[in-house]
């Protein structure tokens, strides 16, 4: 397959299934200028041979079907076309894909958990989650172990369907993960995506959303905690191309330690035909120590004057001394006061996680980060 789309604005990049359509990034490109290319272990330049393995295990809801298919399966690549060289490399190199389908009008009785476990080396993957019209499901993507891993994930949400996804990056300290998650929403479809990024040496996630009919509603939430030397990057794109659709983005992160680096890019485009769009995006970063760095870049491009609402906000700063003082004045030691403030910073987001045991696991991980 050749070139599929071409850019029509500064917020749209070309998309193609063909690796050769993308030049090897040098770091001078806008989409790569924050990413430490030398730490990607060759994922960006074709030198990373797929010599390792990331196992995929699925604990599916009884209403869902799970298939392992080859590259020729017609459901692969229908919702998402690779948008950069690593994404195209992953598309060209994967051998087997996991396809999860929830049938029409089915309501999944439990979450479907897909566990990706790295066993070392370099690997490529592809996952497709399909909800047929009026279906409802919760899906968990749980990443763990050690690997150099690039993959693409397609979420196809049919008319009137509701999909809630939690993606947890709980990799070992040496892992490298570059991933694109794309949600395609049908008429009156609902998508709730929650990203938690804690582990790994370098993690770069690119969630994106597109609409195929009016009435789609997307909510993208993210939480990340960056330690010394870690690079955690989230690059979002919401492409409003249909009228009367909604999107809301809220990402929060905390950073501590020398050379802890967080990058958040939030791109929203409202096309001429997308009248009645209602969108907002927010990013907040908490710098807990000296030596940590957060880059936050919200971008909003509006090509029509007929919108219901559009806005963005971004801020990075230190703990509020008044909050700490208030707690200490009531006899709470500094370390405990600090922990309570940070827990409150994340608490409202964590409460949105649908799966109770996963919610408890994330909170425990945050507590462990603070203790460390």
Automatic annotation (TrEMBL):
Residues 119-345 form the SUF system FeS cluster assembly SufBD core domain. Transmembrane segments: none annotated. Pfam families: SUFBD_core. SUPFAM superfamilies: Stabilizer of iron transporter SufD. It comes from the Bacteria. One of its GO terms (biological process) is iron-sulfur cluster assembly. Belongs to the iron-sulfur cluster assembly SufBD family. This is Fe-S cluster assembly protein SufD.
